[in-house]
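User
Please review the sequence:
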Amino acid sequence: MGWSDILVPSLMICGLFGVMLVVGIGFSYLWLVRLNKEATKCPGCGKRGAGELAESKVIDSKAHWEWRTHSSLFRQDVRRVQVTEETFEDHYECQYCGHRWTKTAQWTRTTPEKKRTRR
């Protein structure tokens, strides 16, 4: 049994996984492009991808502290995190018919409390 008996099947398997990876990334990219076009579809004329973001602003923002459990392989910590909830209002305008519409979205962001250093 020589090196070629092991090397050729190994390269074929690696090549197959490489092709599967490239095809998966390509399909994911195309799916995200389609979702973006569907999200910016004009309610006036119905064309996909026609909406351009004209303005975006925060209309509400709330921040509060929570205790969250963080688990790792060897231990479990309870940490205090700041939770920020923001509501955005996005104004879109159609490139084709000029129709304007508004969408609102909510975002939640967490920031861990910084450790205090003693001086």
Remarks:
- Residues 3-39 form the longest helix (37 residues).
